[in-house]
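Request: Mind sharing a record?
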Amino acid sequence: MFGGAAVIMGVASCGKTSVAELLAERLGAVFTEGDVLHPKANVEKMSAGLPLTDEDRWPWLSLVGEALQGEGGRIASCSALKKAYRDHITAKAGRPVAFVFLDGSRELLEKRIAARTGHFMPPSLLASQLATLERPGRDEFARAFDIARPVEEIAAEAGAWLLQEFT
Protein backbone atom coordinates (compact mmCIF):
# COMPACT_ATOMS: atom_id res chain seq x y z
CA MET A 1 0.00 0.00 0.00
CA PHE A 2 1.38 3.37 -1.01
CA GLY A 3 1.29 5.83 1.86
CA GLY A 4 3.69 8.46 0.59
CA ALA A 5 3.59 11.71 -1.34
CA ALA A 6 4.74 12.23 -4.91
CA VAL A 7 4.75 14.94 -7.53
CA ILE A 8 4.67 14.04 -11.19
CA MET A 9 6.78 16.83 -12.67
CA GLY A 10 8.09 18.20 -15.94
CA VAL A 11 7.47 20.85 -18.54
CA ALA A 12 4.21 21.39 -20.39
CA SER A 13 3.04 18.46 -22.54
CA CYS A 14 5.31 15.85 -20.95
CA GLY A 15 2.30 13.83 -19.78
CA LYS A 16 2.06 14.79 -16.11
CA THR A 17 -1.70 14.43 -15.82
CA SER A 18 -1.89 11.17 -17.76
CA VAL A 19 0.86 9.52 -15.73
CA ALA A 20 -0.38 10.96 -12.41
CA GLU A 21 -3.97 9.81 -12.92
CA LEU A 22 -2.90 6.28 -13.84
CA LEU A 23 -0.37 6.13 -11.02
CA ALA A 24 -2.88 7.34 -8.43
CA GLU A 25 -5.41 4.77 -9.61
CA ARG A 26 -2.87 1.94 -9.47
CA LEU A 27 -1.55 2.95 -6.05
CA GLY A 28 -4.91 3.86 -4.50
CA ALA A 29 -3.70 7.41 -3.89
CA VAL A 30 -5.55 10.72 -3.86
CA PHE A 31 -4.73 12.72 -7.01
CA THR A 32 -4.57 16.51 -7.22
CA GLU A 33 -4.28 18.17 -10.64
CA GLY A 34 -1.85 21.01 -10.09
CA ASP A 35 -3.23 23.09 -12.96
CA VAL A 36 -6.56 23.58 -11.17
CA LEU A 37 -4.72 25.11 -8.21
CA HIS A 38 -3.36 28.02 -10.27
CA PRO A 39 -4.87 31.38 -9.31
CA LYS A 40 -6.99 32.96 -12.04
CA ALA A 41 -4.30 35.60 -12.64
CA ASN A 42 -1.73 32.89 -13.44
CA VAL A 43 -4.05 31.18 -15.91
CA GLU A 44 -4.82 34.51 -17.59
CA LYS A 45 -1.13 35.36 -17.81
CA MET A 46 -0.20 31.99 -19.35
CA SER A 47 -3.20 32.10 -21.69
CA ALA A 48 -1.86 35.42 -22.98
CA GLY A 49 1.48 33.74 -23.72
CA LEU A 50 3.32 35.32 -20.80
CA PRO A 51 5.59 33.11 -18.69
CA LEU A 52 5.07 33.04 -14.94
CA THR A 53 7.63 34.60 -12.62
CA ASP A 54 8.81 33.09 -9.34
CA GLU A 55 6.52 35.55 -7.55
CA ASP A 56 3.57 34.20 -9.58
CA ARG A 57 4.47 30.62 -8.74
CA TRP A 58 5.06 30.68 -4.95
CA PRO A 59 1.37 30.81 -3.88
CA TRP A 60 0.55 28.04 -6.37
CA LEU A 61 3.45 25.88 -5.21
CA SER A 62 2.26 26.31 -1.62
CA LEU A 63 -1.15 24.93 -2.62
CA VAL A 64 0.48 21.95 -4.34
CA GLY A 65 2.49 21.20 -1.19
CA GLU A 66 -0.60 21.56 0.99
CA ALA A 67 -2.43 19.05 -1.23
CA LEU A 68 0.23 16.49 -0.27
CA GLN A 69 -0.22 16.98 3.49
CA GLY A 70 -1.71 14.38 5.75
CA GLU A 71 -1.57 10.65 5.83
CA GLY A 72 -2.10 8.17 3.07
CA GLY A 73 -1.00 8.16 -0.53
CA ARG A 74 -1.14 11.50 -2.29
CA ILE A 75 -0.03 12.37 -5.80
CA ALA A 76 -0.02 15.78 -7.47
CA SER A 77 0.91 16.97 -10.93
CA CYS A 78 3.07 20.09 -11.01
CA SER A 79 5.83 21.37 -13.28
CA ALA A 80 8.15 21.85 -10.25
CA LEU A 81 10.75 23.27 -12.62
CA LYS A 82 13.36 24.47 -10.10
CA LYS A 83 15.00 22.80 -7.13
CA ALA A 84 13.79 25.69 -4.95
CA TYR A 85 10.22 24.94 -6.06
CA ARG A 86 10.61 21.26 -5.19
CA ASP A 87 12.08 22.16 -1.80
CA HIS A 88 9.15 24.55 -1.18
CA ILE A 89 6.57 21.89 -2.07
CA THR A 90 8.27 19.41 0.26
CA ALA A 91 8.39 21.93 3.10
CA LYS A 92 4.68 22.75 2.67
CA ALA A 93 3.79 19.05 2.51
CA GLY A 94 5.50 18.50 5.84
CA ARG A 95 6.72 15.06 4.82
CA PRO A 96 9.06 13.51 2.25
CA VAL A 97 7.94 14.04 -1.33
CA ALA A 98 9.22 11.96 -4.23
CA PHE A 99 9.47 13.64 -7.64
CA VAL A 100 8.72 11.61 -10.76
CA PHE A 101 10.44 13.64 -13.48
CA LEU A 102 8.95 13.11 -16.94
CA ASP A 103 11.81 13.86 -19.30
CA GLY A 104 11.89 13.97 -23.07
CA SER A 105 13.44 15.55 -26.10
CA ARG A 106 12.54 19.07 -27.12
CA GLU A 107 11.30 17.72 -30.46
CA LEU A 108 8.86 15.29 -28.82
CA LEU A 109 7.63 17.96 -26.39
CA GLU A 110 7.08 20.44 -29.24
CA LYS A 111 5.14 17.83 -31.21
CA ARG A 112 2.94 17.02 -28.21
CA ILE A 113 2.20 20.61 -27.22
CA ALA A 114 1.33 21.54 -30.82
CA ALA A 115 -1.23 18.71 -30.90
CA ARG A 116 -2.77 19.55 -27.52
CA THR A 117 -6.18 21.22 -27.46
CA GLY A 118 -8.27 22.81 -24.74
CA HIS A 119 -5.40 23.81 -22.44
CA PHE A 120 -4.52 27.32 -21.31
CA MET A 121 -0.76 26.80 -21.86
CA PRO A 122 0.12 27.90 -25.41
CA PRO A 123 2.95 26.18 -27.32
CA SER A 124 4.93 29.43 -27.21
CA LEU A 125 5.59 28.97 -23.47
CA LEU A 126 7.37 25.62 -23.84
CA ALA A 127 10.69 27.37 -24.56
CA SER A 128 10.48 29.42 -21.35
CA GLN A 129 9.70 26.30 -19.33
CA LEU A 130 12.66 24.46 -20.83
CA ALA A 131 14.89 27.46 -20.07
CA THR A 132 13.66 27.52 -16.45
CA LEU A 133 13.91 23.75 -15.89
CA GLU A 134 16.53 22.60 -13.41
CA ARG A 135 16.71 18.84 -13.83
CA PRO A 136 16.57 17.06 -10.46
CA GLY A 137 20.04 16.35 -9.13
CA ARG A 138 21.43 13.23 -7.51
CA ASP A 139 20.93 14.86 -4.11
CA GLU A 140 17.16 15.05 -4.64
CA PHE A 141 14.43 12.50 -3.95
CA ALA A 142 13.67 12.18 -7.64
CA ARG A 143 13.90 9.83 -10.58
CA ALA A 144 13.65 10.55 -14.31
CA PHE A 145 11.41 8.63 -16.70
CA ASP A 146 11.62 8.84 -20.50
CA ILE A 147 8.36 10.15 -21.98
CA ALA A 148 9.01 8.41 -25.30
CA ARG A 149 7.80 5.25 -23.58
CA PRO A 150 4.09 4.37 -23.22
CA VAL A 151 2.27 5.98 -20.28
CA GLU A 152 1.40 2.54 -18.90
CA GLU A 153 5.08 1.56 -18.74
CA ILE A 154 6.07 4.83 -17.09
CA ALA A 155 3.30 4.48 -14.50
CA ALA A 156 4.24 0.85 -13.77
CA GLU A 157 7.93 1.66 -13.33
CA ALA A 158 7.24 4.82 -11.31
CA GLY A 159 4.74 2.93 -9.15
CA ALA A 160 7.27 0.20 -8.38
CA TRP A 161 9.86 2.85 -7.47
CA LEU A 162 7.43 4.72 -5.20
CA LEU A 163 6.31 1.54 -3.43
CA GLN A 164 9.95 0.60 -2.85
CA GLU A 165 10.78 4.07 -1.48
CA PHE A 166 7.76 4.37 0.81
CA THR A 167 7.59 0.88 2.34
In short: The mean pLDDT is 93.
